[in-house]
Amino acid sequence: MATFNETFRSHWLISIFGLILFVAGTVVLYWNEGRAVHTMMALDEAYDDIYSIQFTEEEQDQNFDGRIVHISGPILVGEPLTEPDYNIQLMAVKLRRRVQMYQWVEESIEHNYGESVGTEQSDSRTYYYTREWRDKIVDSRNFYNRHGHTNPTHFPIESNVQVADAVYIGRYELGSELKNKFQEYQELTSDIRPEDSSIKLHLGLYYHTNDVFNPVVGDLRILFSFAAMEGETYSVVGKMEANKLVPYVTSRGVRVLLVYPGALTVHEVFKLESRSQVLHTWWWRFIGWLLIFFGVSCNSKILRLLFLRIPLLICLAPDPQFPMTGNFVIAFSLALINASVAWILHRPLIGACLFLAGASPYLWFTRSLVDYHRLD
């Protein structure tokens, strides 16, 4: 059996790369769990202090400045958002203009020819040029064959998002950060054609072209969409400041500012936010575990040598015939134990459960080993 030094020298590059992946995964997991803990505690703090405004007569004389509040009701917009060139006028929180240009696009296929008698290995590449609608400029100066495949260098009309200056729910104004949270866009369709005859309206898209069905390079098409039309009901949570809703900062420095569509109670809003945070947390857990798994896989031979030298850890040594299974178990255990460190100080029960789950493979194999020796 090779020694530890011999194994490391023969796999030093992949071992160092694996160690970097392992450290990166550990950092991601620790950061993610710490963020999850602080976010959960911030939501708990906000929920305990919140007041739900019901727009009753008794509340008109109350002062909510500095308090975190929940309000629910239809959106009111002060002035419409407009696109005069396209005869668009809309009472909404946001109006997005997405501009695409018809451009040349280069694609290539590489052909590799292997060695044969009397020949040398040679590489060739075939280039294809097609025309597509693209959101960004395709730099044709980098094309292999630039002749006849020239794109414009800039957009004559840029993509843009308009945000309404004044947006209200009841008599309370929504701050700029709250308005930016309206991200659920819907496509805007209109039958009103632009006055400019050079702009064509087809299937909800506005074309700057002579022929919608036969565009040329440099032609534009524009799609409009909006977020939060006036009259739609939304539920928001934030701090009241001079009759304006702004982010609420908890004692831990976490900013709480929530917006969800529909007439939701305080409990429903926080339930949806908690669910969203859980999904976000599990996504980063998966990323962290994946980094640790690849890090362990890169060092599986070295780990096997280390575990074989420790009697109680022999059972965890990756099996050379089935290395993926052992690497999976080790990465899973290390990820859970790492996550438990962030939770155990703030939520001891959750931290203890994560730690036991991470240590369970070791405990199970150790118990099996002890039972085996008893039988002997």
From TrEMBL:
This protein's UniProt keywords: Endoplasmic reticulum, Membrane, Nucleus, Transmembrane, Transmembrane helix
- Cite the Pfam families for this sequence: TMEM43
Q: Which GO terms describe its cellular component?
A: endoplasmic reticulum membrane; nuclear inner membrane
Chief location of this protein within or outside the cell: membrane
> What is any one GO biological process for this UniProt entry?
nuclear membrane organization
Q: Which family does it belong to?
A: Belongs to the TMEM43 family.
Output this protein's name. Transmembrane protein 43 homolog
Q: Which organism is it from?
A: Drosophila madeirensis (Fruit fly)
